[in-house]
Specification:
Elements (H helix, E strand, L loop, with lengths): L2 E7 L16 E2 L2 E2 H10 L4 E8 L3 H7 L6 E4 L6 H7 L1 H4 L4 E6 L7 H10 L5 E7 L7 E5 L5 E5 L7 H4 L3 E10 H7 L17 H7 L4 E6 L11 H21 L3 E2 L5 E9 L4 E2 L3 E9 L4 E2 L4 E7 L4 E2 L4 E7 L4 E2 L4 E2 L3 E3 L4 E4 L2 E7 L4 E4 L2 E7 L4 E2 L4 E3 L9 E3 L4 E2 L4 E3 L2 E3 L4 E2 L4 E2 L8 E2 L21
Bound molecules: uridine-diphosphate-N-acetylglucosamine and calcium ion (CA).
Uridine-diphosphate-N-acetylglucosamine binds next to strand 1, helix 3 and strand 10.
Length: 458
């Protein structure tokens, strides 16, 4: 049996009040539509995935360049039935289609697979759920013997009894293609919205004795849709909860799973812990025994074993070596490689720096565009002056160097291994290996000096 997936994503998303098309809104670091397409892609025995676009079609398509997808354009928005018809040519030779919505991102492949496996060839399947607050959803109409008769959109409900029905259409359907092709041209926009409803195929199926089977989801929140900023937040919370629970089940220690967000690819070894308000974005890989303090923001970071990241540090595009210690209040910017057992302390900013094993910059420094050897001590307030107003320049510091506090190293510059730079120096020329280098104006003493005094008014 050939099964194709049809994802409806032509909607404008008016209620998002955003320049960005709704299906590209971010959920856990990926666009809504990507979640749907990843679930669809994980299904077995699916032939093609069709995506129906309308609003901002080019922007959406550009985002998924290189994906194996079949794109269809629905011009105008005449309803979900019309949207499916836009892809009809594509699925003409399939036996059945699974219809998904681009704004329903949490459905898992496992659930969809069970649904597909439950519905037989030539049957029509509807994913349903029982909601205590069914507002906004299409209601499942059944007769006295519980046989499904149709789906009624809320706005088209005939009476209170229909509105009180708590079993709803979650929007995912499995449709037999041969029958669907005869149904699609017969759908009429005779409803409150004047739209062509896909859900009306159910009534046609019933009248033609095509079996209709509901697959009721135990947890209907999995089929939550996103129509506005509030629902996007609700779905983000559900997504984060699911993500954290899965990570914690494989051992990640978290102080409060409602106060950690993972927005991308996250992996960790044994005995890692995250304190409250940690945010991880992009790809974050932690080795074993990594401790991440409160309020830490990690983006595209790879961390070796036994690293400690102290509170309120912001680290992006960096590698941290085994046993390194970073923070509190450290900022590490892209292209930085912090060596094993190295220390980056409070109010230290590091950019494109290679810091050797065991080296330390513990207080209030700016280190940019530099290669710093092993066992180097960078004193408080040291600055690599890498920018001359037009270009960036490099600083090279050998192993075992000691840089006294409040020194400025004017790049381009090389500091030889084992050199000592006296505190308060402004270093403008290369520093030889070993020995002491310093540039300091001589200290003076003025004995008979009077402090200025305030003028008195007449
Ligand atoms: C739809 C169902 C309703 C169900 C609910 C579940 C219909 C008529 N109603 O209602 O029974 O309870 O979903 O969330 O299907 N779209 C297009 N082109 C269009 C119209 C819609 O591509 O012309 C896409 C939208 O982008 C969206 C999806 O189809 O991804 C659903 O459309 P929407 O208008 O949000 O349907 P609902 O009113 O939520
Ligand atoms: Ca919707």
């Amino acid at each position: 049996m050939i099964t194709d997936v049809v994802v409806l994503a032509a909607g404008k998303g008016t209620r998002m009040y955003s320049q960005r098309p709704k299906v590209l809104q971010d959920l856990g670091g990926r666009p809504l539509l990507q979640h749907v397409l990843e679930s669809a892609g994980a299904l077995s025995h699916v032939r093609h995935i069709h995506v129906v676009l309308g609003h901002c079609a080019d922007a959406v398509r550009a985002h998924f360049e290189g994906w194996n997808l079949h794109w269809w354009l629905q011009d105008g928005q005449r309803g979900t039935g019309d949207a499916v018809a836009a892809a009809a040519e594509g699925f003409a030779d399939a036996q059945r289609i699974l219809v998904l919505y681009g704004d329903v991102p949490l459905l898992q492949a496992k659930t969809l697979q069970e649904f597909l496996d439950t519905i037989a060839e030539r049957e029509l399947g509807i994913l349903t759920g029982v909601l205590q607050a069914p507002q906004g959803y299409g209601r499942i109409l059944r007769d006295g013997t519980d046989t499904i008769l149709g789906i009624r959109e809320e706005r088209d409900c005939r009476d209170e009894d229909e509105r009180r029905i708590t079993e709803v259409n979650l929007g995912v359907m499995i449709l037999p293609v041969a029958e669907l092709r005869s149904w699609l041209p017969r759908l009429q926009p005779h409803n409150a919205q004047g739209e062509i409803y896909l859900t009306d195929v159910v009534t046609l199926a019933v009248s033609e004795r095509v079996p209709v089977r509901a697959f009721c989801l135990a947890d209907p929140t999995e089929a939550s849709g996103v129509n506005d900023a509030l629902q996007l937040e609700a779905v983000e919370r559900l997504y984060q909860k699911r993500r954290l629970e899965a990570l914690m089940r494989s051992g990640l220690r978290v102080r409060d799973r409602s106060r950690v967000d993972i927005r991308g690819d996250f992996r960790c070894g044994e005995d890692c812990s995250l304190d409250v308000n940690v945010v991880c974005e992009g790809s974050v890989h932690l080795g074993k025994g990594v401790r991440v303090g409160a309020g830490v923001h990690l983006k595209d970071v790879s961390v070796a074993d036994d690293v400690e990241i102290l509170p309120y540090s912001v680290i992006e595009g960096a590698q941290l070596g085994q046993g390194a210690r970073v923070g509190p209040f450290a900022r590490i910017r892209p292209r930085s490689v912090i060596g094993a057992a190295a220390h980056i302390g409070n109010f230290v900013e590091v950019k494109a720096v290679e810091l050797g094993a065991g080296s330390k910059a513990n207080h209030l420094s700016y280190l940019g565009d530099a290669r710093i050897g092993a066992g180097v001590n960078v004193g408080a307030g040291v600055i690599t002056c890498n920018y001359d107003g037009a270009n960036k320049h490099h600083t090279e510091i050998g192993d075992g160097v000691f840089i006294g506090s409040d020194s400025q190293l004017i790049a381009p510059l090389q500091v030889g291994a084992g050199a000592t730079i006296g505190a308060g120096s402004t270093i403008t020329r290369d520093v030889p290996e070993g020995g002491l280098t310093l540039s300091r104006s001589p200290q003076r003493y003025v004995a008979h000096w009077r402090r200025p005094t305030k003028k008195t008014r007449d």
